[in-house]
Amino acid sequence: MHASLTNLKIGIIGLGYVGLPLAVEFGKKYKTLGFDINQKRVEELKAGEDFTLEVSKEELADSPLIEYSCNVDDLKSCNFYIVTVPTPIDEYKQPDLTPLIKASQMLGSVVSQGDIIVYESTVYPGATEEACLPEVEKVSGLTFNQDFFAGYSPERINPGDKEHRVTNILKVTSGSNEEIAEFIDSVYASIITAGTYKASSIKVAEAAKVIENTQRDLNIALVNELAVIFNKLGIDTEEVLKAAGTKWNFLPFRPGLVGGHCIGVDPYYLTHKAQAIGYNPEVILAGRRINDAMGEYVVSQLTKAMIKKKIQVNDANVLVMGLTFKENCPDVRNTKVVDILTELADYDINAHVYDPWVNPEEAMHEYGVSLIEKPEVNKYDAVIFAVAHNEFKAMTIEEIKALMKPQHVIYDLKYMLDQSAADIRL
Predict the structure, then answer these.
(1) 262 is catalytic
(2) Which residue is catalytic, options 70, 78, 132, 262?
């Protein structure tokens, strides 16, 4: 027999951008164990601090039933497990299920009769039942859907977004049989004020998640391709999009770098599965190629503009404003600003990266990027506004020009400045 809402003890595996906000919400209502293999992360949370800035000190304190641990044995007291580990891609753009497999093997060592495991990590349709649950069975000796049960409820966290939080985003749920699906749905419904949507199967829920981000990726790819065309025609892309946006059903996407742990990664999970069953996806991969090439395109535009202004490209100083994958959050996972830095290095350009949101140690550890403490006056031949942090938006054109040499190029990648203030816009 599985747990009931009255004796629920929830174990959350992985305390990152997805797991922590969820654990904190559950910890207001149920006994909850937040588990992470990173001891430093666990100690930080015990001290009431969250480096991801997703959960405030006050919110952490307002979750009285939560405990944090990096000791696997502590998970044995739980009866409802939620897995929120990363699902990255490898250097060949293939899904890397290693964190998920390891988490499943670990759960195999603690799961007992009647327990439920819910996966939230983004995967291809079928991964939960084909790749994860057999690992739990192997280690535990228990039989799936007989001795223990499972579900899938895709995460919908939006890092840095203080309006769309875990409780006010509608949650898709699913379970390995009708009774379990109903119970899993009731567990989430007890904390999600926006409500839940019970999918008909685990595979449907997995597929729904992966196409959310694939659709967004393709919409941005289309606008990126349009931006390249309009630049060649000498038309301002933003002006075109504003004009087209006056139609009620025109979608308000903007060109840019597509990074992060979701949009730039998830489509590869779907295309991997499609290829495995003998179908070669064309539209999805074309969109990926366009978006992955944007860093190179940005630098080629920049260097052309510098040459036109007779600024020596070799050994030039370029200020890159922003390193994170999106504005107003410290998340640097799969940031495409790194593609810009790689291209700048190919031209022997000195990139000076400034981002007040990023931990300098993390920038160095993840990408070998040394952040500057603050931009210098009268120093730079060009500036690229790569991320639209509020701090950058607040800068006046006078403040920006004070950082630049008399002859310079201002590249506004994020439409932060007036059209007249920027030399180039995407």
Answers:
(1) yes
(2) 262
